């Protein structure tokens, strides 16, 4: 319980942050005149209800800002514009908070002064009125109701924080999964040229003519160049800046296509790539890593949907923008001729753990994609078809364009 003696008050500012718990239910009392504050504090102490008498409105506001159970204020504090700091704190509460204020009023008939006070207290929000003289039972009952409501607010806050931590954990796990899939793709891509080089070196150890040896050496150099290019793409992925910058779409798109090239060739998928033909680069504001992750998720899903082959169409084009918007937009379309998405699943595909791949899918790829898109202020649209003789899915991402300087 917080002591109320005047000897301890001068040190309240230095110890406030360490004294107040994350779910503190103490009552802060501010009665600038009379003995109401000490009488109420004595009553609460006898009921073992933690409390603190504030010396000033500034001290009361500090407790409200840091987080306590309730505030109890006498109407005498309503002089002039004195409640402006308290209103500022109440208007800047976090979304889960609706801080309770118990106001001690003066009973009597309606007068010009009582009307003025009524207008002043209206913006206080979650307000409880107690007319003086107050019966102890009434005060305690009102305070218990206010504190129960405050406790529920703390529970909502904790649930919001728990949900945020769960979301962060899901994002981390999906990023690890993406990294694993990327590592597998890189290993596969590097293994093919390395096997070719191994075979070429074996052949070069035989009895060959100078022309054959030169031909095999040129082939080995080409395969090593493939390994070098794959390594550069991989290093570029991990060494990119974390802050958004003007990013050219074409190289990012090419790197994703190259890393999936052998997988598409094995499956029998043909790629149609169409990038806006203009003299300048098509640039958007993004981190290359996030843009690559979004494209990798969409292209990877398209490949998974075409296990028996098909056509993957990737198109980068201008978008007319939205009504009232002066910004230029780029539309990136990833369309496949795969199995499509059922109408029942389509509305929820951006939710976590929703997948069309059965046990082979985590249901996190499109959710992570949507989180990246929301964070950057982009837009995403999807349409899918599963009619007889015509199947496929098309995703369109709309990204604000960065005009050349």
Quick structural overview:
This protein has helices at 12-19, 36-46, 57-66, 84-91, 112-121, 136-204, 210-238, 249-259, 261-267, 288-304, 365-376; strands at 27-30, 51-53, 70-74, 101-106, 127-132, 245-248, 269-275, 283-286, 310-319, 329-336, 379-387, 390-400. With 405 residues, the chain is of the alpha/beta class.
Structural description of this entry:
A hairpin with a 2-residue loop joins strand 11 (about 380-385) and strand 12. The protein folds into 2 domains: about 5-135, Response regulator (Rossmann fold), CATH 3.40.50; about 240-405, Heat Shock Protein 90, CATH 3.30.565.10. The longest helix has about 70 residues, at about 135-205. The protein has a 5-stranded parallel β-sheet with strand order 2-1-3-4-5, with helices on both faces. The protein has a 5-stranded mixed β-sheet with strand order 7-9-10-12-11. A two-stranded antiparallel sheet has the order 6-8. The protein contains 11 helices and 12 strands. With about 400 residues, it is an alpha/beta fold.
CATH fold description of the largest domain: Heat Shock Protein 90
Strand content: 15-25%
Mean pLDDT: 79
* Relative helix content: 40-55%
The assigned CATH architecture of the largest domain is 2-Layer Sandwich
Helix-strand string: HEHEHEHEHEHHEHHEEHEEHEE
Q: Mind telling me the CATH class of the largest domain? A: Alpha Beta
The count of strands amounts to: 12
Largest sheet: 5 strands, parallel
